[in-house]
Specification:
- The complex is a heterodimer.
- By secondary structure, chain A is mainly β.
- Chain A is about 15% helix and about 45% strand.
- Chain A has one domain: Jelly Rolls.
- In chain A, strands 2-8-4-5-7 form a five-stranded antiparallel β-sheet, with no helix packed on it. Chain A has a four-stranded antiparallel β-sheet with strand order 1-9-3-6.
- Chain A is elongated.
- Chain B is an alpha+beta fold.
- Chain B has one domain: Beta Barrel (Lipocalin), CATH 2.40.128.
- In chain B, strands 1-2-3-4-5-6-7-8 form an eight-stranded antiparallel β-barrel.
- Chain B is elongated, with a radius of gyration of 20 Å.
- The relative contact order of chain B is 0.14.
- The chains are: A mainly beta, B alpha+beta.
- Chains A and B meet through strand 2, strand 4, strand 7 and strand 8 of A and strand 3 and strand 4 of B.
Chain lengths: ~170, ~160
């Protein structure tokens, strides 16, 4: 008898308020690979202060938590920067997220190997399994770009990233 | 008496700050290029935020013997990442310096089988690391000894 009462309650709670989703863009994130760079993998990082209020605007509510986050698009460009080397010096690119929180492991999110050397904008292949939710509930996230360079370079390389995320929340 | 208390408080604060800064600097001793005992790879350890990570920067056999192409992470459990070049792969991740020449909370990835293990690093002297990978408890694991490489600086300008 009790089961008969409990079942409709269970059904009502699972059909409660659905999650909302919003697509947000992080544009012109600058990655500076400080020279000298040696042939092979080199790393640059962007310290991102996660500010849900400015990302979600009127959807933001005080104390809210992100329930789901996934990377939709990651584009790397060499446009609009001074003394750019372009992609003729780079073989591959990998984009990852990292955090100071010891409970959150670094995640590889997207890669392009080999890159299309004749293009100014490289669209990375996004991992279907990458889980970003924990990062979005942190205040500081390190966005890491690894570039595999083809030869030793004395100077800096500056690249820019545009990243599109889909966030879910109540 | 009040003056003495204030001085004592300032002293304690200064000591704590010095100890904190010194611990951070001690942790940075891990930075550099290291070679596992089998000599088949070299791993550069650097820092992202407050954590330490290690990337493969050199491979003895850099190319796949079958295809002749540079090796990729073909055993990665995430299929979409199997094209990540092995040279450059971040096989040590998320290490936190705990003091006493020990870095913990990290993982080590074995590209030969695509498995990730919990890992602890202990620096036994300035040029030697005990890298212990394990599943579950540290007692059930294997330790490898890594040696620091001295890297000569070379520069080549872009023409």
């Amino acid at each position: 008898m009790l089961w008969a009462l409990a079942l409709p309650l269970l059904f009502l709670s699972s059909c409660g308020k659905g999650s909302k989703t919003q697509v947000v863009n992080l544009n012109d994130l600058e990655f500076n690979f400080e020279g000298p760079l040696y042939e092979g993998p080199n790393t640059a990082q962007y310290a991102w202060k996660v500010d849900l209020k400015s990302l979600l605007k009127d959807q933001y509510t005080e104390g809210m938590k992100i329930k789901g986050a996934k990377l939709l698009v990651s584009e790397i460009s060499d446009e609009d920067c001074e003394e750019c080397y372009g992609f003729d010096e780079i073989k591959s690119l990998v984009l990852s997220f990292a955090s100071n929180n010891k409970d959150i492991s670094m995640q590889e999110l997207a890669l392009l190997n080999p890159i299309a050397a004749d293009k100014n904008i490289q669209s990375l292949n996004v991992s279907g399994e990458a889980e970003l939710t924990d990062f979005l509930n942190e205040s500081d996230v390190y966005i890491v770009l690894d570039a595999n360079v083809t030869e030793d370079i004395e100077d800096n390389i500056t690249l820019k990233a545009n990243i599109t995320l889909e966030l879910s929340f109540d | 008496m009040k003056k003495f208390s204030l001085l004592a408080l300032v002293g304690v604060l200064l000591f704590s700050m010095t100890a904190f800064v010194s611990q951070k600097a001690d942790g940075d001793r891990l930075l550099g290029v290291w070679e596992p005992s089998n000599g088949r790879a070299r791993v550069k350890i650097d820092k992202i935020g407050d954590k330490f990570f290690g990337r493969i920067v050199w491979l003895k056999e850099a190319k796949d013997p079958v295809t002749g192409e540079p090796k990729t992470d073909k055993n990665n459990p995430d299929e979409s990442l199997r094209n990540v070049p092995l040279k450059g792969y971040r096989m040590l991740k998320d290490f936190v310096y705990k003091g006493d020449d020990i870095w913990e909370e990290g993982t080590i990835y074995d590209p030969l089988n695509g498995n990730t293990y919990s890992c602890t690093i202990k620096m036994t002297d300035n040029n030697t690391l005990d890298i212990r990978g394990y599943i579950g408890v540290s007692a059930l694991g294997r330790t490898d000894i890594w040696k620091r490489l001295k890297i000569k600086s070379k520069k080549k300008s872009k023409k």
